[in-house]
Design brief:
The chain is of the alpha/beta class. Helices cover 50% and strands 12% of the residues. The chain folds into two domains: 225 residues, Spore Coat Polysaccharide Biosynthesis Protein SpsA, Chain A; 72 residues.
Length: 317
C-alpha cells in the first residue's frame, strides 16, 4: 500500500464527507493505493455514524473510536500502530489542510529520501492570539532541538513508515513529533510550504492551556532525549556543582572567622547571622539532594527493560 492518511478528529461530523471525497479524488487521480484511517477521539456528535456511513461508499475508509477524549497524541499513536502504508500522511479533519498537497509530500518522501516532511503554513488564517504564541514556541523549539522548521505543530505531515513504527507519541507530544523522531535517529527532516485554508465548519478544539502544556512537553522531550538513559549526568553534575559552591562559601566564612580570632579582630556578628551562611547551607542541601536523585534515577534506569534497546537501521550478518 502506498499511503495511509491518518485523520484524528473530535466533533467534526460536518467536514468528514467533504474531506473523504476530496482525498479519494486525489488518490484516484494519482493512482495511489491507500487507506483513510479516522480516529474518533471520543466525539459527542455524530462523527462516528458519519464514518460508518462513509465506509459503505469508500472501502478505503477505516476507523477507530475512543470511549472518551484522550487527546490528539493518543489518537496519532494508535493510528501509527495501525497504519499500513509505506508513507503515512497526517492531516486535521477541519478542512484547513488541503489533500491536494498529498502527491508532493509522497514524492518527497519516496524520491528525496526524507524521513519526515513537515508542512509550513506560511500564510495563516488564525487570529493574532494564536499566531504570536505559535511563533514564539516554534523559535524556542528550533533553538532547543536544532531542527530548522518554521512550523512544528502543523497537522499536515508525511512520514516514512519506519518513523511511525518506531516513535511513541504520548501526553501532548504531537506538537514535537519531529523532535521525537530526531532523538530516535531519524534526522532527514524537511519542510514544505502548504496551503492553510480557513475553517469551514465548527470551531477550534484547542484552548490557551495548550501553550503552557506545549512548553512543558518541550522540556520533557529535551530532558528525556538527552538524559533519559543517563540521568546521573544531569542531576549528578548539578548536584556536585551546587554542593561545591556551598562548601566553598562555608569554608570561606570559617577561615575568615578563624583569621579574625587569631588577629584579635572584633567580630561584629556571628556566622549564623550572615545571609551567606544560609545561602551556603541551602546550596549544600540542594546539591546533596540532586546527587541522590541522580543516583536513584540511575538505579531505576539500569533496571528498566529498555535500557539496552537501540535502533538498528541496517545490518550485515
Amino acid at each position: 500500500m502506498d499511503i495511509s492518511v491518518v485523520v484524528p478528529l473530535f466533533n467534526e461530523e460536518e467536514s468528514l464527507p467533504e474531506l473523504t471525497g476530496w482525498i479519494a479524488e486525489v488518490m484516484l487521480a494519482n493512482s495511489f493505493t491507500y487507506e483513510i484511517l479516522f480516529v474518533d477521539d471520543g466525539s459527542t456528535d455524530a462523527s462516528w455514524t458519519v464514518i460508518e456511513h462513509l465506509r459503505t461508499t469508500y472501502p478505503a475508509v477505516k476507523g477507530i473510536k475512543f470511549r472518551r477524549n484522550y487527546g490528539k497524541s493518543a489518537a496519532l499513536n494508535v493510528a501509527f500502530e495501525a497504519a499500513q502504508g509505506d508513507v503515512v500522511i497526517t492531516m486535521d479533519a477541519d478542512l484547513q489542510d488541503s489533500p491536494d498537497e498529498i502527491p508532493n509530500l509522497f514524492r518527497r518522501i519516496k524520491e528525496e529520501n526524507y524521513d519526515i516532511i513537515s508542512g509550513y503554513k506560511k500564510k495563516r488564517y488564525d487570529p493574532i492570539s494564536k499566531t504570536i504564541p505559535t511563533k514564539l514556541f516554534n523559535a524556542a523549539t528550533r533553538k532547543m532541538s536544532g531542527i530548522q522548521l518554521n512550523d512544528f505543530n502543523c497537522g499536515l505531515k508525511a512520514y516514512r513508515k519506519d518513523v511511525v513504527k518506531t516513535i511513541e507519541v504520548y501526553g501532548e507530544m504531537h506538537r514535537y513529533i519531529p523532535v521525537i523522531a530526531k532523538w530516535a535517529g531519524f534526522t532527514r527532516i524537511g519542510e514544505q510550504v502548504v496551503e492553510h485554508r480557513a475553517r469551514k465548519y465548527g470551531v477550534t478544539k484547542f484552548g490557551m492551556s495548550r501553550f503552557i502544556n506545549g512548553f512543558l512537553d518541550l522540556l520533557s522531550i529535551f530532558f528525556v532525549g538527552k538524559f533519559g538513559k543517563r540521568p546521573m549526568h544531569f542531576f549528578g553534575t548539578l548536584g556536585v556543582l551546587s554542593f561545591l559552591v556551598g562548601t566553598i562559601m562555608a569554608l570561606w566564612m570559617i577561615v575568615e572567622k578563624l583569621y579574625h580570632i587569631a588577629a584579635h579582630i572584633q567580630i561584629k556578628r556571628d556566622i549564623t547571622e550572615m545571609p551567606l551562611f544560609y545561602i551556603a547551607l541551602v546550596a549544600i542541601v540542594v546539591g546533596s539532594q540532586m546527587f541522590l536523585t541522580g543516583f536513584v534515577a540511575e538505579l531505576v534506569t539500569r533496571n528498566a527493560p529498555e535500557r539496552n534497546q537501540y535502533l538498528i537501521e541496517k545490518e550485515l550478518v
